[in-house]
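RECORD TYPE: inverse folding
INPUT: structure tokens
STRUCTURE:
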């Protein structure tokens, strides 16, 4: 992953709780963010869902990068993220934790695959950053549901 330094986003309110988000990659279309009802109209994901998507994407990309670097044939990779909302001591809603399950169909040398499963979380910028305040549990399973890797928090 070659990003270094800073990046920027621009959010502009459209109406109510709907915002258009533009990224510093000008070729990307804007993304609509909105809150669930009763505040918003769910015209797009809310911030909590975007954080969950970022965690899932980062972990998936880190694992894929390692597997491909190790010359493994990744036939499929699917990721499911469950976000748990909790309330703090003041009753304010917070992201409590994430559970991530990555399902892979991969063919390659088992020692290289095992090595990737040991390393990939350390290279996920997003997960390593948010784990300082939000627990993230990760599982990797094959297409038959057999667990290949597990890290519980």
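DESIGNED SEQUENCE:
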């Amino acid at each position: 992953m070659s990003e270094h330094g800073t990046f920027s986003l621009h959010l502009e309110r459209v109406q109510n709780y709907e915002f258009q988000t533009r990224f510093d990659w000008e070729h990307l279309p804007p993304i609509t963010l909105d809150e669930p009802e009763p505040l918003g109209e769910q015209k797009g994901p809310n911030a909590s869902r975007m954080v969950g998507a970022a965690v899932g994407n980062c972990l998936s990309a880190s694992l894929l990068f390692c597997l491909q670097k190790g010359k493994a044939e990744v036939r499929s990779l699917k990721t499911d993220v469950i976000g748990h909302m909790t309330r703090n001591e003041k009753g304010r809603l917070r992201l409590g934790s994430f559970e991530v399950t990555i399902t892979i169909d991969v063919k390659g040398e088992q020692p290289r695959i095992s090595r990737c499963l040991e390393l990939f979380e350390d290279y996920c910028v997003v997960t390593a950053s948010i784990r300082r305040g939000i627990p993230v549990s990760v599982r990797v399973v094959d297409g038959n549901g057999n667990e290949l890797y597990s890290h519980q928090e």
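NOTES: The longest strand covers residues 73-87.
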